[in-house]
Amino acid sequence: MLYGAIEAGGTKFVCAVGTKDLEVIERIQIPTTTPIETMNNVIDFFKKHQEQLAAIGIGSFGPIDIHPNSATYGYITSTPKKAWQNFDFIGYLNKNLKELPIVFTTDVNAAAYGEYVAGNGKGRSTIVYYTIGTGIGGGALQNGTFVEGFSHPEMGHMLVRRHPVDTFKGVCPYHSDCLEGMASGPAIEQRTGMKGQELSVADPSWELEAYYIAQCVYNTTLLFSPDVIIFGGGVMKQAHLRERVQEALVGLMNHYVDYPAFENYVLPPKLGDDAGIIGCLALALEKSEKDIF
Ligand code: ADP
Ligand code: ZN
């Protein structure tokens, strides 16, 4: 048997098939254009493996409808990406492939799951995963179950306290200066006029970036008391941010709670950019086992 994985991102889709040992045997990348064009490439990829496929795990950009009893279950809902608004993701797969068990969750939940089964969250009971890239998103897992209620969390839009010297208005179309508005890749670019990857390590804006990420760690610590907080995404490739975040966090926390030593607590994804795809495979595997037993 094989298991399918779809990491559906705002700029690219990654599709993979893998084994029960979570070994990827084939993968492709597809640019995210229109739903029909992108999804037809997805379908073509899985069609080749259709006979062996046991289930598919999907980690999608969102917001998405994750409630199986809802009329719009399996849809991408109110995304700012107009062409994808109210797109019936699961319905489209079911129509064009044989009907398979499908797990539908957010991109960050899938990455959290990958780290939980095979990365820096392995053996831990409560983990939170963030990505800091084009957007900011977060997902939390407790004993293998995603934290969710009426919907999935939208942690990337938590409110943050503005740094006293930061006059940037923020890029979030809904809240201006939420965490995503102040600390995402596009926020860095608009604040400084340069992409994060082009910015000097000595640029003073990294202090602002670290201050906002430290607030994210602070809030996450007080809300979940997790065992680990994992930060992925392009912006976190700036290794110098860690030390700055650690320093800012000490100031914000002001000894209010004891938390694990920073070097064991705030971690990069052990699976790197594969956290999401491995997580999707693991979710598919688990779903197919659940449906059999
Ligand atoms: P996406 O969020 O689209 O899946 P990424 O996580 O790579 O992809 O995020 C892209 C954003 O991260 C862009 O705004 C880019 O400028 C920024 N970025 C990518 N690499 C780096 C880097 N090495 N340092 C700082 N910022 C980066
Ligand atoms: Zn926002």
Automatic annotation (TrEMBL):
Q: Entry's InterPro entries?
A: ATPase_NBD, Carb_Metab_Reg_Kinase/Isom, ROK, ROK_cs
The cross-references to Gene3D superfamilies, in alphabetical order and at most eight, read: 3.30.420.40
Q: Which reaction does it catalyse?
A: D-fructose + ATP = D-fructose 6-phosphate + ADP + H(+)
What GO annotations for molecular function exist for this entry? Answer: ATP binding; fructokinase activity; metal ion binding
EC supergroup of this enzyme: transferase
Q: Which cofactor does it need?
A: Mg(2+)
EC number, as in UniProt: 2.7.1.4
Cite the entry's keywords alphabetically.
ATP-binding, Carbohydrate metabolism, Kinase, Magnesium, Metal-binding, Nucleotide-binding, Transferase, Zinc
Keyword Membrane belongs to the record: no
- What family is reported? Belongs to the ROK (NagC/XylR) family.
Q: What is this protein called?
A: Fructokinase
